[in-house]
Design brief:
By secondary structure, the protein is α/β, with parallel strands linked by helices. The chain has eleven helices and seven strands. The strands form two sheets. It has a four-stranded mixed sheet.
Length: about 325
C-alpha cells in the first residue's frame, strides 16, 4: 500500500498573498514494506512522485520515521524489509519554516530534496533544492523593491494605478523627511550666503554618506536573510560599522580635502579641513545607522529591507548638511 502526499513550499507570513510554489508529491510507504514494494511504487507513480530522489517511510500515524535513497534501493534485494535499509535520522524541515530557514537547511546538509513535516511529525510533502533557489531569488528581488519603497509584489506588468497606490505612501514619507533635511539648509542660510562655495560640497558630503549607509544596510539585510544576524549582537554589528565608517571617512575625507584645496586654494586649508571633517563624521554615523535600520525594522515587525533607504538617505542628508554648515558657521563666528 502506498500513499502520496502533496504539499506547497512554505511561504513566509509576509508573502503568503503571492502564489505558492507547489512541491511534488512525496512518495511514502509503510515502514513494514519491502524494497520490492518501494520499487514497484516508484514504477506506478512515475514522474509524478518526488521519489526520483528518495522514498520515505511512515508509521501507522503517517509520522516520518525513515528515508531511503535510490542508491540503497538499487543495491538491496527486493525481499529486504524497508526498515533494514532506511536511515532513521531523517533531516527535514517544518511546514512553518520560511524560505530562509529552508535554504539554510539545504546549505548545511547538501541534499537535493528534504521532507516537510507538520507539528506532529507527519509527512506533509517534500521540497527540492530548485524550489528553494526560485523562492530565494523571488525574495531577493522583492527586498530590493521594498528597499526603495516599491511594493514587494509589483512587477513590470502590474497596472499603473496599482503601482501608483503602492508607491505613493512611501513617497509622501520621503517628502516629509526630505523637508526636514532641507530645513537644516534654511537654518544656515546666512552661512551659505557668506561662504557660497559650501553649496558645492553639500551634495558631496551628503551623497558619500548615503552611499556608505547603503553599503552597511545591504550587508545587514543579507545577514538577517541568511541567519547570520542570529549569531551576532546588534552592538557588535554597530561597533564594527563604526570602525569601518571611521576608517573610510578618514580616507575619503582626506581625498576630498585635497580636492577642495586644489580647486579652491583661495579659501585656504580651512575649507578642505571642513569638508574632510564633515565626511569623517557623516561616514561614521552613516555606516552605524545603515546597519542598525534593518534590525530596527525587523524588531517593529516590518520587513528588514522595507523602505530602509528612505530613512537612511534622510539621516545622512540631514547630518551631512548640519555637520558641514555647522562647522562652517562656527569657523565664521570665530574668525569674525
Amino acid at each position: 500500500m502506498t500513499s502520496a502526499h502533496d504539499t506547497t513550499f512554505p511561504v513566509p507570513r509576509e508573502t503568503q498573498a503571492a502564489s505558492p510554489v507547489t512541491s511534488p508529491a512525496a512518495l511514502a510507504l509503510p515502514e513494514a514494506s519491502t524494497v520490492g514494494d518501494a520499487v514497484e511504487a516508484i514504477r506506478r507513480h512515475g514522474d509524478g512522485a518526488a521519489g526520483p530522489y528518495y522514498v520515505y517511510a511512515v508509521d501507522a500515524s503517517e509520522r516520518l520515521v525513515g528515508v531511503v535513497s535510490m542508491r540503497d534501493l538499487v543495491l538491496a534485494r527486493p525481499a529486504t524489509p524497508l526498515a533494514r535499509v532506511m536511515h532513521r535520522g531523517v533531516v527535514g524541515v517544518a511546514a512553518a519554516d520560511g524560505p530562509e530557514a529552508v535554504a539554510r537547511a539545504f546549505r548545511r546538509h547538501r541534499f537535493v530534496a528534504l521532507p516537510v513535516v507538520d507539528d506532529a511529525g507527519r509527512l506533509a510533502g517534500v521540497v527540492t533544492a530548485d524550489q528553494v533557489i526560485d523562492s530565494i531569488q523571488r525574495e531577493a528581488t522583492e527586498e530590493v523593491q521594498q528597499m526603495f519603497g516599491a511594493g514587494a509584489e509589483e512587477s513590470l506588468s502590474t497596472p499603473w494605478h496599482l503601482s501608483f497606490r503602492r508607491r505613493l505612501p512611501w513617497l509622501f514619507v520621503n517628502l516629509v523627511l526630505a523637508a526636514l533635511g532641507a530645513s537644516v539648509v534654511g537654518f544656515f542660510e546666512g552661512t551659505i550666503g557668506a561662504w557660497t562655495v559650501l553649496a558645492m560640497y553639500m551634495p558631496v558630503v551628503a551623497g558619500m554618506g548615503g552611499n556608505a549607509s547603503a553599503q552597511a544596510m545591504a550587508v545587514a539585510v543579507r545577514g538577517i536573510a541568511l541567519g547570520d544576524a542570529d549569531r551576532v549582537s546588534l552592538r557588535r554589528v554597530v561597533a564594527r560599522e563604526l570602525r569601518v565608517g571611521a576608517a573610510s571617512g578618514v580616507v575619503t575625507g582626506a581625498a576630498a580635502a585635497a580636492v577642495a584645496l586644489a580647486l579652491h586654494h583661495a579659501h585656504g586649508p580651512l575649507l578642505g579641513a571642513l569638508v574632510g571633517a564633515s565626511l569623517l563624521i557623516n561616514h561614521t554615523a552613516a555606516c552605524a545607522w545603515g546597519a542598525a535600520i534593518p534590525f530596527l525594522m525587523k524588531s517593529l515587525g516590518f520587513d528588514p529591507a522595507q523602505s530602509a533607504t528612505i530613512f537612511t538617505t534622510t539621516l545622512t542628508d540631514f547630518l551631512g548638511f548640519f555637520t558641514l554648515l555647522g562647522l562652517a558657521s562656527v569657523s565664521l563666528n570665530l574668525s569674525a
